[in-house]
Structure formats: C-alpha cells, structure tokens
C-alpha cells in the first residue's frame, strides 16, 4: 500500500521503517524536506538527525506534507499532537479526502507544567478535532497508548500478550487499520466505538506517563485482562 | 482493623462485606442511617434496598458519617465522586485527622451528557481535592480502575493476573492500603507516585467505560504487561 507518514520524530521514523519493512511504499511527510535533511545535530530530545536515520532507511521517501499525502492511499499522523492540525492542513484536505488517517498522536500540553496535561481533553479529543476538520477523511485513532518500539513490534513486551485499541466512525477504515496492526504482530485489537471514544484512548496517557516513571521503562503496555 | 466505609451503594456494600469477611470491624457510614435502612425500593440504578443487603451482612455496622469515621482507624471513600467532599465533610475533619483515607471514588460528571466525563480532570483530581480539603488525613487513591466485584476478588478475572494502582503522599499509608489490596488477592500493586498521580488513575475511567461497552461486561481489568 502507498502510505504517507507525517512526522519525522522517533514515532514517525519507527512507523515508517516498520511499514517499509513490511513491503509498503512509504513516504515520510515533513514541512520542509530540504531543511529536515540538512539538519546535522540531535534535537532537544536527543533524537539523532533525520538524515542519519534516512541513510539507513533509504527506501523511505521524503516529501513535503502535501506531496506525501497526495500520493498516498493511507496517511499516518505521527506528528506532535500540538502540531497535528497544522501538519494535516498543510497536507491539504483534498489530499486527505476519502482516505484513512491513522492518528497515533497524543495532544500533550506542556504549558501547564510537568508532567504534561492534555489539550483537548474530557469532552473532546485530538482524534475528533481531526475528524471534524477533515470530514471527508476517515480518522482511526490507534497505537497512541504505547511507546513506538512496541507499536511496531508488540513481541518486545510479554510475548505480545497485550492490547491495542481502535476508535473511528468508519468500519472499513477500522478494518484496514486493524490489518496493519495485525501485520505488526498485534493480536488483541479492541474496537472502542466511534471517534468520540478517542477521548478515552488519549486520556490513558497521564497514567501511562506515571507507569513509565514507576517502572523506569516505556517498554510496557496495557493488556485488557478478561 | 476498625474500618469505616462511607457510601451505601454497590461499591460500598461490596467493599464493606469483603472487609468484614476478612475479620475487620466494619461500619458503613451514611448521611441518615434511619432513612437508609427504611428504604424498601430499588434505587434508580436498580440496586436493591440497603436493608436487604444488611440483613445478609448483619455483622457490618451502620452509622452516620461522623459516628462511623470517629470510631475508625481507616476510612474508605466509596461514595459517588460528586458527593465525596460533602460526605467527608459530614464525617468531620477531626475524625479524619491522622487517618488513612482509601479513596476509591471516581468524579464522574453526568452534566455533559453520556458517556459521562470527569470533573475535576487533567490538572486536578478528586484524590487531590480530598487531600487538600483534609490536609491532616493521608489520602491513597486506589481500586477506582475496576468494577466492585473485581476490587475484592481479583481472581474473578484472568486468574488474578492484572494490576492495581496506588497514589498518595504518605509511604506508610500506601503500605497499609497495599496490605489490604493483597488481602483481597491483588498481586501486582503499582505505586504511581504522589497524590497528583491520581489524575492518571481517574482519567482511565473514560476508556474503562468504552471497554465495558465493547466487551459487554465490567468484569475485566487492566494488566500492565512488561
């Protein structure tokens, strides 16, 4: 499948690399490809420069948001939550119409101090904001409840015995995303309901951050025991 | 131990019955014991009248909030989240001073429509509100992330292979609550940190409600796979 992954951070790189490894035709979208590839220093979070990753993953294309989305059948939103609407707007509503947007971002809000809070939250969610802004796209919220390495290789944690959620209004879109999740090795995909259920999936982040602190590793996941 | 359980709903009854069964000296606190015992009809949620439960659990005392709290070494807040501060205020700050408050309530807000949202949320929590209002008490948030039957008998779900969280400022209080949790059969007790981590534990409720809908049963629980 032709897939655009919007976002050049650790999450975007991890997802793009894994999808390419599964044989998909993957392009990473960024605001300014020249600038992204020209950077030579690690970013604030210590993430190595993109060009270094790209040299090792040269099968993945790099393009401006709109060019990446125009050629894609499915678009992954792997940008920071605070920049997601701007990135998708740059991708262009016409380039998103009729397509599945697999939204894996979290609307972390660092303006209220640490640990981050969420914005939007409670009676709205980033997933819903994206669906409202791009009504012709089919938004599916998923994977935002775990760290990037576990998203694409669930066997890294407890032999893969844990759960992943999907939220969205379109059954076919959720089935397409579920297919991708299963290709990563996820075995327990729970359909939470329509896109308003993205509120719950996003609101799991605050306890995720505390569990990360308690365990000293982000390599864990929620399993729905039943 | 002498334990007061504030709240006469399903959660309060389940916790009180289980604690009495473990040999504790348990009193259920309510606003007006006479009125509570006089009711003969099920409530709005279909919960049978309290007197019917009490007839089968006559070893559990029934008293006004203040009387229940005055005689207790540990107080369980099993009231509705929206009524918790009023109930604890009726119990009396003097009767709570120096004691552990095991807070198992959720601040569900039905005023924004269904499914319920939370209030407070995100940058505050019910657990923190209680700790601020009763600074001499030692609040420990716990058990709010699962249904009542699983709180007191974790073996009902997946052989007890799942997790429970504690949040609070006082290490001894968390140790005391952890002892109670283990006496119920909980084996994986995760210390999330200080009482501000109750935000995360409470914000898990929206996805809990969606999973309940997806599975058709409340008898599930979160396991932190790692």
UniProtKB/TrEMBL annotation, chains A, B:
Keywords, ordered alphabetically: Oxidoreductase
Keyword Cytoplasm attributed: no
Residues of the Pyrroline-5-carboxylate reductase catalytic N-terminal domain: 2-107
Family matches, as Pfam families: F420_oxidored
Keyword Ion transport: no
Superkingdom of the source species: Bacteria
Official protein name in the record: NAD(P)-binding domain-containing protein
């Amino acid at each position: 499948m032709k897939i655009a992954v919007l976002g050049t951070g650790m999450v975007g790189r991890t997802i793009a690399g894994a999808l390419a490894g599964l044989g998909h035709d993957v392009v990473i979208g960024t605001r300014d490809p020249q600038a992204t590839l020209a950077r030579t220093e690690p970013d604030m979070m210590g993430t190595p420069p993109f060009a270094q990753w790209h040299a090792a993953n040269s099968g993945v294309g790099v393009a401006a948001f709109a060019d990446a989305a125009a050629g894609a059948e499915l678009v992954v939103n792997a940008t920071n939550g605070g920049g997601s609407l701007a990135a998708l707007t740059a991708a262009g509503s016409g380039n998103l119409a009729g397509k599945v947007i697999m939204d894996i971002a979290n609307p972390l809000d660092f303006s209220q101090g640490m640990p981050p809070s969420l914005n939007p939250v409670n009676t709205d969610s980033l997933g819903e904001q994206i669906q409202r802004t791009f009504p012709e796209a089919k938004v599916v919220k998923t994977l935002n409840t775990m760290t990037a390495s576990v998203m694409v290789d669930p066997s890294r944690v407890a032999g893969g015995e844990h759960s992943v959620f999907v939220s969205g209004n379109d059954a076919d879109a959720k089935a397409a995303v579920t297919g991708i999740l299963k290709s990563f090795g996820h075995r327990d995909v729970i359909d939470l309901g329509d896109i308003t259920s993205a509120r719950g999936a996003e609101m799991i982040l605050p306890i995720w951050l505390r569990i990360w602190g308690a365990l000293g590793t982000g390599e864990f996941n929620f399993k729905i025991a039943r």
